[in-house]
């Protein structure tokens, strides 16, 4: 086990106030359409979301950012920040992700003095970068000397655990059902990391049409509990 | 060096309110027909065609179009792009469109039909100066197979990269591999068969326009699903899931008309295919 793992756990904790609890990334559209309505249908949605969208965006970004930090190639990090932002066509998920990234950066800066965090902040201030949680998370994981596959795994875990929390509130599901889903999802996360480690770089940003469409439709959902 | 199956280049400029080509070049299995002026706006329309009738194993197509300041053009195809089976190597097409300040290009290709075991990759690279306007649509059909079965192609990969003043502003990447994905399932085609995408980049985009587009689509079409959202730069994208090419074409034609009327005071002609 990597040393400093406990420090990274803090960023994965659902109490870590990044605002992720306000974003459903299109899940709420499916809940309102009654497509996602119970434990089984939510699990299906989560599988598609992780294996068909998240691995090609945030997941692959973790790997590429980690490599770029290793090679001290910051330009590549800033390129990925832009790519991650502009490939996110639905406005709410794009802006929501940016807000989460910004808050995660602010919190991380108050906990750690890794120089790359301040450089990222500078880029954002100059409007050269946007802020993305997968980039901030990887910067912290790298700074804490956590291995690359573990950095990816814990990033995915944190993304999934806040989605499960949101599903518990919105569908709604019982707390035990939520824990069962998280537990059942562990092998899926392992599989996602294995896939990410193998992905060709030019698979970056592949989106699944239905998921993306639901993320766009959320803008027109009238009564809502999530911002995306 | 790539050995191109077909190459096309077209440089357009504005001459006293009329858009004309200052350079037209094509070679191999790519052709452009005589320019057509649908009205007296000076906007030119070019029909691109593939004399071979379809894309075959390992075919490589390259197209480069430039629109100088003030040039206005419609680019479309003469018929659907058909990609036949590609046993050895995928078919590939790349398009680069360069738009100078104040120019307008609408790129409206016909639907893509991928046959059984076809692999196809398409890359559109758009380089715009601010003040230019770009409108793009594409339609993916479930393909064609002798048995009538849907989604029998191997892979379709479509990439759109739009740069505004040399900075990446839009990146759109769709890759469908039916053998590995539950095509009709949740998150993918959601029970539909056809996917349409529209991307518009233009400084005149505002929330009012998006609302009007939304209302118009909602009022006119049923039996489809769509999403509409603003880009990170002035502009928007639309995704449509439907069960026929016609529903998507009608939806995009409606949006195209609204934009042409509001932004250019023009009513677009239907693109007659000869």
Q: What can you see in these coordinates?
A:
The complex is a heterodimer of chains A (228) and B (274). Chain A is mainly alpha-helical and 228 residues long. Chain A has a single domain (37-214), classed as Urease accessory protein UreF (Orthogonal Bundle). Chain A is built from ten helices and no strands. Chain A starts with a helix and ends in an 11-residue tail after the last helix. Chain B has one domain (6-264). Chain A binds chain B through residues 30, 35, 41, 44-45, 48-49, 52-53, 56, 82-83, 85-87, 89-92, 94, 130, 203-217, 219-220, and chain B through 167-175, 181, 185-190, 195, 214, 225-232, 237, 239, 241.
Overview features:
heterodimer; A: 228 residues; Urease accessory protein UreF; 10 helices; B: 274 residues; eight-stranded mixed β-sheet; seven-stranded mixed β-sheet; 12% helix; 45% strand
């Amino acid at each position: 086990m990597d040393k400093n793992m406990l420090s990274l756990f803090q960023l994965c904790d659902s109490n870590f106030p990044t605002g992720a609890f306000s974003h459903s990334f299109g899940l709420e559209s499916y809940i309102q359409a009654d497509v996602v309505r119970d434990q089984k249908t939510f699990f299906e949605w989560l599988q598609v979301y992780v294996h068909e969208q998240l691995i090609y965006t945030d997941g692959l970004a973790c790997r590429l950012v980690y490599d770029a930090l290793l090679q001290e190639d910051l330009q590549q990090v800033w390129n990925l920040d832009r790519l991650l932002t502009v490939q996110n066509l639905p406005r709410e998920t794009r802006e929501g992700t940016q807000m989460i990234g910004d808050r995660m950066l602010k919190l991380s800066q108050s906990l750690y003095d890794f120089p790359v965090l301040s450089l990222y902040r500078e880029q954002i201030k100059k409007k050269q970068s946007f802020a993305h949680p997968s980039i901030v998370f990887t910067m912290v994981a790298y700074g804490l000397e956590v291995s690359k596959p573990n950095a990816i795994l814990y990033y995915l875990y944190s993304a999934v655990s806040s989605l499960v929390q949101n599903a518990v509130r919105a569908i709604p599901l019982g707390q035990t059902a939520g824990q069962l889903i998280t537990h059942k999802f562990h092998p899926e996360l392992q599989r996602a990391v294995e896939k990410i480690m193998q992905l060709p770089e030019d698979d970056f940003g592949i989106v699944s049409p239905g998921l993306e469409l639901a993320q766009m439709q959320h803008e027109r959902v009238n009564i809502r509990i999530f911002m995306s | 060096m790539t050995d191109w199956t077909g190459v096309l280049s077209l440089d357009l400029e504005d001459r006293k309110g009329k858009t004309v080509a200052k350079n037209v070049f094509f070679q191999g299995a790519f052709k452009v027909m005589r320019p057509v002026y649908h009205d007296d706006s000076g906007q030119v329309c070019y029909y691109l065609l593939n004399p071979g009738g379809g894309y075959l194993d390992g075919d490589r197509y390259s197209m480069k179009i430039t629109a100088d300041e003030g040039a206005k053009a419609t680019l479309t195809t003469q018929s659907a792009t058909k990609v036949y089976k590609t046993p050895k190597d995928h078919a590939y097409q790349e398009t680069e469109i360069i738009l100078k300040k104040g120019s307008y290009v609408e790129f409206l290709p016909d639907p893509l039909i991928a046959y059984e075991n076809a692999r196809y990759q398409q890359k559109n690279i758009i380089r715009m100066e601010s003040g230019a306007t770009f409108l793009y649509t594409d339609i993916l059909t479930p393909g064609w197979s002798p048995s009538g079965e849907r989604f029998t192609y191997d892979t379709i990969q479509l990439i759109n990269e739009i740069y505004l003043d040399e900075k990446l502003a839009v990146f759109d990447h769709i890759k469908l591999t039916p053998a590995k994905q539950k095509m009709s399932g949740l998150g993918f085609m959601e029970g539909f068969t056809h996917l349409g995408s529209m991307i518009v980049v233009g400084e005149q985009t505002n929330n009012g326009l998006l609302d009007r587009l939304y209302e118009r689509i909602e009022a006119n079409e049923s039996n489809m699903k769509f999403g509409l959202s603003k880009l990170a730069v002035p502009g928007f994208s639309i995704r449509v899931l439907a069960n026929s090419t016609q529903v998507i074409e009608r939806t995009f034609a409606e949006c195209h008309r609204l934009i042409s009327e509001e932004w250019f005071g023009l009513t677009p002609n239907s693109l007659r295919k000869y």
